[in-house]
């Protein structure tokens, strides 16, 4: 009789969403040749995965009180079935790994869970649509890159030359060329690529790509691809402002245009226009809360103490104003940002979001992130934004005040900080009568974020009326 209850339909959507995230995470590590983390770290990873999946199927007591006995029984019986593939690598009684677990074994176990969920009829797919086929194949596709290229099976010097130093030419989502001119390139940098400019080039040797954390090192990629033809991109001189050819940098999770100069002449010309604030740099960001129509545009002039100079371990930049004026050290710099509200959105839970275009006149570390956080905090203090809303960019793990907001954003709204440099322009160094302008559309992960949110038509009517 109890087993008959197992046919009662319940929503597998939350389990499926968590499985997709875990399968992608584990698959990429397995396919790129990683064996597994150190034992203690893998123990924690497996335990966290097990508990997260269990909570997605068997609800906590507070949630369970709102469910029927039939649905609770169906969920518990289904979880017993789920424990079978998980039990191959994880002791579900002792809540610990059975032995040294590899990413391959972890993937195989999660794939078994995927098969169980996929077998459920359409009535179980209530918050997500049932896919036409399982999105993750049973067989892993082996890639040519691992954490250490020399450990790849079949590695040989010829393959290493094709892959580049540390497999640089096999890294995910490499930069694409947007514009090329006399003495410069403009590349489109994807999210999860870092723009490191270390004093000592030997530090590049320590870089190891990590999926959805640091997919690649932009500076290394430029040095490897163009260093022979343009030796200037291999040079570093802090006193002269020479940083391997880079004239602007973007945060790790920010996408957009990066300027690389080919030679000293190009460097001198473009650096001069940059320092005179003659570049046009325009970004799109999605922030929490509904910025009211009467504050839908403005100029933010903030004195910012950059993270590296404020003795902050988290490298947060700080806006100096009001009660923290006493922190002024003479190292703060003025950040000027011009913002315009573009659109309003909301999600199924009722949380509000505002899409904002920001043009920065100069460029300081985290300038947009800290300036928007400061603006939203001020508006909230004036009771112009719902006090329940967090203040900052969506998924901003540094400036959002609540860790729960970051977790919610990354799972339900956007997988990374919603900040994209959509336009970069400057006078052509070879012809001062022409303008060079590089424009890029929103990356698919950011466009997908907007597509799954709904338009806040009431807020837009207020903005149009204003």
Q: What is shown here, in short?
A:
By secondary structure, this protein is an alpha+beta fold. The chain has 12 helices and 17 strands.
Keywords:
globular, alpha+beta, eight-stranded antiparallel β-sheet, 466 residues, three-stranded antiparallel β-sheet
Q: Would you kindly provide a written description of the structure presented here, covering whatever features stand out?
A:
This protein starts with 12 loop residues before the first helix and ends with a helix. A hairpin with a 7-residue loop joins β15 and β16 (435-439). Helices cover 32% and strands 19% of the residues. The chain has helices at residues 13-31, 39-57, 61-64, 69-86, 103-118, 157-163, 218-226, 264-275, 367-381, 403-413, 444-452, 457-465; strands at residues 90-91, 96-97, 176-181, 184-189, 193-194, 216-217, 236-237, 242-243, 256-261, 280-288, 297-305, 318-320, 333-346, 352-360, 419-427, 435-439, 454-455. By secondary structure, the protein is of the alpha+beta class. The chain has twelve helices and 17 strands.
**H/E topology pattern:** HHHHEEHHEEEEHEEEHEEEEEHHEEHEH
Distance between the termini: 63 Å
Per DSSP E runs of 2 or more residues, the count of β-strands stands at 17
Q: Count of helices?
A: 12
Tell me, rounded to a whole number, the average pLDDT: 86
Poorly predicted ranges: 144-161, 309-313, 322-326
Shape type: globular
User: What is the radius of gyration?
Assistant: 25 Å
Q: Strand content of the residues, in percent? A: 15-25%
Largest sheet: 8 strands, antiparallel
Helix content, binned percent: 25-40%
Structural category is: alpha+beta
């Amino acid at each position: 009789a109890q087993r008959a209850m197992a046919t009662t339909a319940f929503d597998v959507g939350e389990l499926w969403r968590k499985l997709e995230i875990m399968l992608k995470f584990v698959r990429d590590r397995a396919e790129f040749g990683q064996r597994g983390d150190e034992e203690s770290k893998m123990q924690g990873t497996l335990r966290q995965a097990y508990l997260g999946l269990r909570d997605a199927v068997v609800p906590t007591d507070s949630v369970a009180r709102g469910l029927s006995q039939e649905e609770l029984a169906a969920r518990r019986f289904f979880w017993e079935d789920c424990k079978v593939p998980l039990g191959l690598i994880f002791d579900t009684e002792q809540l610990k790994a059975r032995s040294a677990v590899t990413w391959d074994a972890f993937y195989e176990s999660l794939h078994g869970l995927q098969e169980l969920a996929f077998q459920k009829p359409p009535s179980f797919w209530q918050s997500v649509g049932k896919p036409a086929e399982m999105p993750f194949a049973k067989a892993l596709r082996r890639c040519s890159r691992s954490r250490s290229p020399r450990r790849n099976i079949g590695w040989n010097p010829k393959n290493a030359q094709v892959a580049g130093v540390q497999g640089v030419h096999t890294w995910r989502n490499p930069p694409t060329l947007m514009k090329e001119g006399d003495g410069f390139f403009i590349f489109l940098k994807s999210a999860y690529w870092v723009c490191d400019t270390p004093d000592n080039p030997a530090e590049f040797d320590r870089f190891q790509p990590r999926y959805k954390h640091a997919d690649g090192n932009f500076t290394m990629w430029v040095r490897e691809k163009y260093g022979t033809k343009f030796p200037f991109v291999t040079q570093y001189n802090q006193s002269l402002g020479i940083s391997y050819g880079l004239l602007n940098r973007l945060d790790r999770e920010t996408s957009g245009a990066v300027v690389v100069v080919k030679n000293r002449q190009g460097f001198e010309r473009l650096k001069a226009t940059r320092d005179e604030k003659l570049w046009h740099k325009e970004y799109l960001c999605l922030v929490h809360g509904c910025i009211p129509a009467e504050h839908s545009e403005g100029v933010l002039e903030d004195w910012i103490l950059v993270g590296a100079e404020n003795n902050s371990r988290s490298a947060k930049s700080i806006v100096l104003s009001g009660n923290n004026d006493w922190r002024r050290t003479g190292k703060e710099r003025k950040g000027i940002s011009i913002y315009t509200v573009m659109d309003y959105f909301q999600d199924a839970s009722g949380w509000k979001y505002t899409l904002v275009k920001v043009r920065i006149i100069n460029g300081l570390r985290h300038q947009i992130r800290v300036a928007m956080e400061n603006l939203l905090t001020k508006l909230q203090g004036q009771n112009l934004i719902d006090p329940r809303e967090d203040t900052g960019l969506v998924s901003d793990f540094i400036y959002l005040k609540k860790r729960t907001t970051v977790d919610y954003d990354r799972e339900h709204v956007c997988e990374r900080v919603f900040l994209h440099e959509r336009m970069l322009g400057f006078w052509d160094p070879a012809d001062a009568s022409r303008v060079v302008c590089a424009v890029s559309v929103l990356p698919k992960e950011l466009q997908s974020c907007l597509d799954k949110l709904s338009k806040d038509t009431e807020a837009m009517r207020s903005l149009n009326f204003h």
